[in-house]
Amino acid sequence: MTARLPDSLQRNPVLSRWVSVDPGGTIAVRCGKVELGQGIVTALAQVIAEELDVDLARIRMLSVSTGTSPDEAFTAGSRSLQDSGSALRQVGAEVRACFLARAQTRLGVPADQLEVRDGRITAPDGAGTTSYWELAEEVDLDVPATGSVPAKPASAHRVLGTSAPREDIPDKVLGRPRYIHDLRLPGMLYGRVVRPPSPAAILHAVDPGAAKTVPGVVEVVVDGGFLGVVAAEEETAIAAAEQLRRGAEWNERESLPDQAALADFLAETPADREVVDQRPLPPGRAAAIPARTLSSTYARPYLAHASIAPSCAIARWDDGALRVWSHSQGVYPLRAALAQALALPSERIVVGHVEGAGCYGHNAADDVAYDAARLARAVPGQPVQVVWSRADELTWAPFGPPMSVQLSADLAEDGSVLAWRHRGTSGGHVSRPASASGPGLLGAAHTSDPVPVSVAVDPPLARGGGGQRNAVPLYEFPEQEIVYHRLLDMPLRTSAMRALGGFMNVFAIESFMDELAAAAGTDPVEYRLRHLRDERARTVVEAAAARAGWPGRDRADESRGTGFGFARYGNKAAYCAVVAEVHAENEVRVEKLTIAVDAGLIVNPDGLRNQIEGGAIQSTSWTLKEQVRFDRTRVTSADWESYPILRFSEVPPVDVVLLDRPALPSLGAGEASMGPTAAAIANAVYAATSIRVRTLPLTPEHVIAAMQD
Asked: In angstroms, rounded to a whole number, what is the distance separating the alpha carbons of residues 64 and 572?
């Protein structure tokens, strides 16, 4: 029977698009997923090495580039192993079969009797040998995948399931050039862009004279409200940009809501309404009379990416064609957006990926690529590097949108849920390049012929959702109704931030489950298990509780508490349960996180732990500290003092237990720990203080406000 091809392989079915064999003894691999610091390049190399039966050292993972790499859209949604990994497993199996078929002809031995080890193909009893390298020029890989060749069974794995060292780490630890910020091209110039002082500001007048007189300035670009400089040295570009900023006059106006009344803004702004899920009682079954009904509302603020390194890009024009080096999550969508914004055929643009220093969704990588392209057009033939300032990064990159979730539940006498109601409200979570009308690039919205950035949208739940993600609980209730409202106006630009709506929805659901357990007088873990039927979910919950020695704290210590959180990311990816131990006196400090995760077949155990730990630590930062601050005119959190993030001294120990399922498909895990960690911390604060804080972050001001509710 022919199996259905993975989606990425259906869109890019030709084997040679993915893999080529070098007679010199290496395998070149092209995929459409990019390295963002998550270790995916190493994991995907393990996948193809396993299926081809070659040593991992022979695999050369080529950088993603339009035209040469398969188009896999964005590296997002914790789907790299599910999408690209599944495609490469099938590609590897079929490429291996192609070589075995050719070896069968050469050696006169049936293919199913041949053995492959590190690319060498051997007949039984050593009766004949050949290799991939000897056959490389005889095997045609310009053929489509068929889906008829099965991948290896788990029992035969030698590379998958091992903690192969990440191939990107040595350069990063030793400080060797690897990031796009380190890239130096011959004749490279340096650019800087001057942003408006606030989202609604309109340029009134500009005098570029002072900027032009700075020694070393090559060009000053003024195109409507798009202002920039190009210089021979980076420090010169910075100085000239400051002169250009001083020479610009802007008309500003109040366009932002009152931050203190953000909840009112979410409630009063027009919105699309979507019934995400509705499960009434089966016909003929009478509704039980609830013993009581409980309701709570949870909220989070705007969040910034707050990457340590600001966004960067390099661009060069040659004979009307554009070459861009970018740390974008999607080189093909970025190419399409640049083509639209610059009125250039897409075939005249090449976008290649170079690693940036961290990415948590749709940050400013695509915006700075446009900036570099627009400035480079003024100096054809010379590459121009543009790096955003820290202030621009924290105030102009897309934000994660604010959200609120109202939950209510009808309870039986024993505290079990009879009916569950969820009402979520949020700005849209996706305004990526080419995801909506227009290119979606910030600089293009400021030119003399502006293309405004569209209000963010949400993909349908079938494709992961945005604000709806994880709104449907994995728990089973007799009745439930899940409704989502996407705001049609958003005064600050929003887009994809790690976990999208899954972070807030899980925080709300898991906090509310804790409230319901308390109302029922039941242990929070026991209460969750009462409503869980999914055996993999139950196993993860039990594993985290057992590993942490739940509840793990002396209840007599009033300043310390232990909390629990659980979810399956997107209800389709990895299962994750978190136990948080906190100390809450003058401030909340997380002392330990214990996490259990089921991500199906584990490709690289160390890599999986890295992803779970990283998500949990970032979630801790969001939960305790992070919020975008603004007045009625502009964003005011423009530096690390006004937008604090978790410091190294505040990072808790993280203990991760992995539940391997080698016979099951790999599941995405990069965002799985975000929501459960936040909920576990908030629930631990309640256990320590008896104060239920429902508004993030858990700052002293929000704790005090919760005490007064």
From this structure: 27
Copy the structure tokens of residue 336.
């399409």
User: And the tokens for 478?
Assistant: 């007799």
Is residue 120 located within the same domain as residue 213?
no
Query: What distances in angstroms separate CA 532 from CA 538, 540, 550, 608, one per listed residue?
Result: 7, 11, 18, 25
pLDDT tens figures, 51-110: 999 999 999 999 999 989 999 999 888 889 989 999 999 999 999 999 999 999 999 999
Number of other CB atoms surrounding residue 649 within 10 Å: 5
- The model's pTM is 0.96
What does the alpha-carbon distance between residue 401 and residue 418 come to, in Å, rounded to a whole number? 32
pLDDT by residue (tens digit) across 344-400?
999 999 999 999 987 889 999 999 999 999 999 999 999 999 999 999 999 999 999
The helix or strand, by DSSP H or E, that contains position 226, with its residue range, turns out to be: strand 226-231
Classify the C-alpha dihedral 135-140-142-145 as positive or negative.
negative
Asked if 442 contacts 456 with a C-beta cutoff of 8 angstroms, the reply is no
Which domain covers residue 387, as residue numbers?
A: 187-252+305-396
As a whole number of angstroms, the distance between CA 99 and CA 354 comes to 33
CA distance 698 to 626: 9
Is 17 in the same domain as 112?
A: yes
Q: How far is CA 244 from the centre of its chain?
A: 35
Residue 351 lies in a domain: yes
